[in-house]
Amino acid sequence: MKNTFNDAMPDQQGYFGEYGGSFIPEELQQVMDEIATAYDECRQEPGFITELARLYKHFVGRPSPIFHAQNLSQKYGADIYLKREDLNHTGAHKINHCLGEALLAKKLGKKKLIAETGAGQHGVALATAAALVGLECDIYMGAVDIAKEHPNVVRMHILGAKVISVNEGRQTLKEAVDAAFTAYLQDPHTQLYAIGSVVGPHPFPMMVRDFQSIIGNEARVQIQEMTGDLPDNLVACVGGGSNAMGLFSAFLDDKDVALYGVEPAGRSIEQPGEHAATLSLGEPGVMHGFKSYMLKDDAGEPQEVYSVASGLDYPSVGPQHAYLKDIGRANYVAIDDNEAIEAFFKLSRLEGIIPAIESSHALAYALKLAKQKPGSSILINLSGRGDKDIDFVVAQYGAQYGIEGQ
Ligand SMILES: *Cc1c(COP(=O)(O)O)cnc(C)c1O
What we know:
alpha/beta
């Protein structure tokens, strides 16, 4: 299930080089240790592995296909492939780790799953997993995101989850994490905090990566079957970094495969508060229980961040990405709101696929890369579908793209 590089990372304390680890109160440390031990047992247990594989196949619809986007390829002069995580049940890659976390919570005898959500994708995926395995579910969500991502809020209610509105600060992802963390601290024994990305204290960056590595493991086989070769480039968007880590993990030893993580440049990469380009502009620091790159304000606190993609506006990033950046194995670049929206319409109109705004960041960068590396092959992780974004996109950008009277 895992390659050699991954087995070596992280170390026992959860470090990827100098990043990762666990910076949390003693009481919570005991709970994290318990989770780490249970996870270690699970990943070696045939019953757990078989059950997860069964759910991936028959519940999620895996393996997700790889699609050769011929119209885009022809137009941009490179061979462009899409890993179709948008076709998963619930519409994105997050279901991959939510099912893993839900099965783990069940094994630990927990009663309730709690989590934060940005775009609502993690909330929906977790509420889905909770319904399936029979657990309660509380989802913390910024009030701004609740207004923007209405269909996902309704889905969570229908699935039986409780959605708790967070009204502090910018009322988006970072504040939702703070609120969920506080709730977890009040009762870490009957609840499991199912973190939504490859972030948080050890073992979450490792565990979420492992659950998401199904993306890369499938893709590595599929692309070789299709083309007889490995891709020259991998491109994935990076919020916390789970879909990117899931794809990259199977290719880390393939030195000829270039890796690109795409962060949101938002409204302006020059202005603090107007982007969330953590790896591009941040510095090492500790927040939410782990060490990684982070965007800091003048007081050294987490900076306010922004992106048109609710799933990408987080002021830190998965510690393994910080490590991959420092050793030069992966490249981290940024795409702004307008470029992402342009790519959103390009994929919709050239290939008949409406992508999530998050995934559109990866797509936008891939199209730039195609021009820089003509004739090369590019595999993009299409992390999710855009159904959740259509009302917002048409209201904000419809006129620019010839959609009138909305
Ligand atoms: C949540 C989300 C992301 C960002 O999360 P990562 O952990 O960086 O993968 C990207 N795409 C979609 C569709 C999402 O829902």
